[in-house]
Amino acid sequence: MSWSRTSQRCASRAFVLTATLTAALATPALLAPGAGAAPDATPTRSATPTASPTTSPTGSPTQSGTPAPGGAAGSTPGGAAGKCPTLPDVSGPLRSWEAVADLPEARTHLATTTACDGRIFALGGETAAGAGGAGGGAGTTATPSATPSGSPTATSSTATPTATYTPTATPMTPTGSASPDETPGVRLTPAAYNGGLPTETPDDLSPGLPGGTSPTSTASPTSTASPTSSASPTSSASASPNGGAGAPVSTVQVFDPKAGTWSDAPDLPTARSHLAAATDPDGRIYAIGGRTAGNGGNSGGATDTVEVYTPSTGDWTTAPSLPKPMADPSATRGTDGKIYVLDATTLAIYDPDSRDWSTAAAPPSANAAPVLAGLPDGRILAAGGLEAGNGSGKEASSDAYAYTPGSGGSGGGSWAEVASLPTAVADAAGATGPDGRVYIVGGQDGDGDAVGNTQVFTPDDDRWSAGPSSALATRTGHGAATGGDGHVYVAGGSSGSGAPLDTTASLSE
């Protein structure tokens, strides 16, 4: 009897020990001294070994580190340092155009900006009457003739994979460090325009909503178009022959350079065209000014409205209004983290920390709608635009000026003339590239014709040079921004015939 009880107790203890060992083997962290629970998110790579990633209160990844001066590797052209991922170096210049996935909807006079995760937001704009295949009259089809071999394109706007996403989680906090074989490089600095700065998309980016959130899709991507088609980029949107300005739209769509696809984001609260866009150091997206009544009239219902999108929550909110309505604003973010907004007569400066606007004078040229871009040395470049004056005889300008901010980024700065554009352009778009150069793409020349030029500004010596020309770059009223892969992207706009475009193209090394 005594042996029986003892054997029963031993068997019971053996069972408990076996169960404990089984559980431990199934959870390796329990066997590692001092180890915590295994992370439930894939670590984000940091390409700068000295940087220490943290998470800002708004959920945007933040990073400390000292940028190199003068636009060299490690610099932050177009934006404040320390808030967006640091990514590998691109020395530039960028030389090669290729077609990528089309916008789901042909739009012109839209705005673009780069989010902190490297995705590109395309906001607002307008579509011409009859666009999108609407019946009722003859239209024209915008077809850039270049056919890049092997270029990823979609053959129609309805074939582009799109989905509607609802944010259900806050962005993942970067927790990894650089591997020994990674190359330190520039930091992603979303700017506006027109501009943002990155080079290679972080590995933790997934298709869907910006910010690394885990989206809940309400519409499955059902594209039947092959993203590897070599067909020439073609706008499938039909438009009335006048290229006519339709009503402003509230559409917001997001391009993921890593996935090569567009997705839908929550609409603008206020439908607008001719607006500007910028991203603040905490990753919030700003939709600034523009027109609420399309392209009609001299100002088309100019507005002072500023609305802000927070990627981590998927919500739009209202920010303090512009100091005055602006029908054709241009915007960028400076290295001081402030947002600079320019029209023909006023430079408005927004401080995201204090939520206050200040003002300064516009450049002496007083051109309307120039390209605005932040430079690595802290200056703000304004180039091209429509010459000052009244009436329909105004022409494209080659003027270029650089603004040096005053102390604290207040309105006490000054403008200085720099080298003129080689080709005068209006209604162009531009972005600060990963190499610190500014790439101004397309626009209308002095004869009113759409051009496919790329004009490149090197801030180290304030010099312009000719970049690659392409039918893919031949457009006006488009948006431009630098994606997380270091390519400069142009999206939408109008063709030489005035028809709105749904095509997107990238400029890379």
Low-pLDDT regions: 1-12, 23-82, 129-244
Mean pLDDT: 72
Placed side by side, the strands forming the largest sheet appear as: 3-30-29-28
Total number of distinct structural domains: 1
Major β-sheet annotation: 4 strands, antiparallel
Report how far apart the termini are. Answer: 85 Å
Total helices: the number is 1
Q: Would you tell me the structural class of the helices and strands?
A: mainly beta
CATH superfamily assignment?
Kelch-type beta propeller
Into which percent range does the helicity of residues fall? under 10%
Tell me about this structure.
With 509 residues, the chain is mainly beta. The protein has a single domain, classed as Neuraminidase, CATH 2.120.10.80. Helix content is 5%, strand content 24%. It has one helix spanning 2-26, and strands spanning 54-55, 61-62, 96-100, 111-114, 120-123, 140-141, 165-167, 215-217, 238-239, 252-256, 261-264, 276-279, 285-288, 306-310, 315-318, 330-333, 339-342, 346-351, 356-361, 371-374, 380-383, 400-404, 414-417, 429-432, 438-441, 454-458, 463-466, 479-482, 488-491, 504-508. A four-stranded antiparallel sheet has the order 3-30-29-28, with no helix packed on it. The relative contact order is 0.18.
Outline the secondary-structure elements:
Blueprint: H1 2-26, E1 54-55, E2 61-62, E3 96-100, E4 111-114, E5 120-123, E6 140-141, E7 165-167, E8 215-217, E9 238-239, E10 252-256, E11 261-264, E12 276-279, E13 285-288, E14 306-310, E15 315-318, E16 330-333, E17 339-342, E18 346-351, E19 356-361, E20 371-374, E21 380-383, E22 400-404, E23 414-417, E24 429-432, E25 438-441, E26 454-458, E27 463-466, E28 479-482, E29 488-491, E30 504-508
Antiparallel strand pairs: 1-2, 3-30, 4-5, 5-10, 6-9, 7-8, 10-11, 12-13, 13-14, 14-15, 16-17, 17-18, 18-19, 20-21, 21-22, 22-23, 24-25, 25-26, 26-27, 28-29, 29-30
